[in-house]
Amino acid sequence: MIVYNLDDEIFGRYRNAGPVWSILDRPVGEATLSEKSSRSDVVYRLLRQAILEQALRPGTKLAEDTIADHFKVSRTSVRPALVRLNAEDILDLRANKGACVAEPTLEEARDIFALRRMLEAEMIRRLVADLGSAEVKRLEQHVKQEEAALSDHGPLSIRLAGEFHILLAELTGSQALARFVREIVSRCSLILARFARLHSPECAVDEHVQIIRALQSRDTATAERIMLEHLHAVELRAELDIDKTEPDISAVLQRYARKG
Fold first, then answer.
1. Above pLDDT 70, what percent of the chain?
2. How far apart are CA 166 and CA 50, in angstroms?
3. 6, 20, 115, 249: most buried, per Cβ within 10 A?
4. Where are the domains positioned within the chain?
5. Predicted confidence (pLDDT) per residue in 60-112, tens digit
6. For the residues of the chain, what is the DSSP string, one character each?
7. 8-102 with 106-237: one CATH topology?
């Protein structure tokens, strides 16, 4: 297990994320029940973002009091957030050991990618039948965000790439499918964080454009083939590099400090 000394810089990067933090400005003791729930929601969303952007890497230990101190909330607001992340298999909660970012195994990685191919093939079949011009526009706007993030070469590009697939699932109109895809994409992000070799994010953007064009063509077989080829390419990026060197945590913190 990796134990990082997480200081104000990495948490500050997410605490300064925007208006969602206004609910945290009131003293903890003065918060209403709904506000306490909102505090927990904010902690959940920003911890999840930090994990999916790979700022918090697999194996990173997260102590409740550390999170509470840096996010300036009570531990009672932190616990529900950790439980939600655990339910999504993003975080591991162990008795007497606390929480740490989940560490997928190689065997699990293969299984997850196999399941993802089945889920997203079904997603494509549904989209080909029902995707309209408004939905295509939303996908194209998302890809523009991905293109704009290419210079980031890291966290934002990583998160947007996964969110493209989540958006596709949401556009099917199936809440169940969207939930399953969201959870499996999150798990794949952890797999990529742990095992993937460096690659150009431009590849993913180009592949997403191809997927949109295939959906517009209304050719189910072609659209499904392109999606499966894309997922295969993603899986290849996670080729089992078990000797992957961990990043310099000081450099990570400095990078997030500049963005804060």
1. 73
2. 17
3. 6
4. 8-102, 106-237
5. 888 888 888 888 888 888 999 999 999 998 999 987 778 999 999 888 989 99
6. -------HHHHHHHHTSSGGGGGGGS-GGG--HHHHHHHHHHHHHHHHHHHHTTSS-TT-EE-HHHHHHHHT--HHHHHHHHHHHHHTTSEEEETTTEEEE----HHHHHHHHHHHHHHHHHHHHHHHHH--HHHHHHHHHHHHHHHHTGGG-SHHHHHHHHHHHHHHHHHTT-HHHHHHHHHHHHHHHHHHHHHPPP--HHHHHHHHHHHHHHHHTT-HHHHHHHHHHHHHHHHHHT---TTPPPP-HHHHHHHHHHH-
7. no
For the chain, give the mean pLDDT.
79
Amino acid, res. 155: P
Q: Class assignment of domain 8-102?
A: mainly alpha
